[in-house]
Amino acid sequence: MEHTMENTMGRTTALRTLAIDPGTREMGYAVLEGTELLYFGVHTFAHRHATCGLCADGGAFVRGLMEAFAPQIFVIGKTKYAQSKRSGRLHVCVEALQRLALRHGLVVRAYAPTAVKQMICGHGHATKREVAATLIRQRYAYLDKYLKTDLRTREMYWQHMFDAVALGLTGCEETSQHRVALREGTQQRGT
Questions:
Q1: pLDDT in tens, 34-64
Q2: 4: buried, middle or exposed (CB in 10 Å: 19+, 13-18, 0-12)?
Q3: Which domains does the chain have, with CATH numbers?
Q4: Does the global pTM surpass 0.70?
């Protein structure tokens, strides 16, 4: 399921970011130009994919996003190192996606959930729902319709998308701070 917010033509000086919230059932994604949300959604994997199939499916999907949107930055959520079968598969796939992004010449950033929550909500102990509500309140009011629980599964299907948006904003903010620091350093050396 996907949504486009703007035509991809007409590049500005803002960096374009592709953000991925990894998962073994669903993978959230968001494309931002600066802080403007261009494209977002949730990619659902076929049920019970083996690790190689999961990596291949995720890689093909992410490659398609890279080709369509030509991002400069790739941001992905860090995975936990729990001793579960799903966690191990997920970690392998995250590493494969990072390698794919590097091969495409993208700057790769990975953030732990606590760092993203700190950036978006101001503290690292925010719930996923608080992160989504903060994104809606502070930047993207039109995403409010996605802040609903699926009545059949009692889960928030769209939470993966919200997490990807939060990852993208975190990467955008860090990159902006880095650019400012570089610019200031260059100006100081020039004087």
A1: 999 999 999 998 876 788 888 999 999 999 9
A2: exposed
A3: 14-190 (3.30.420.10)
A4: yes
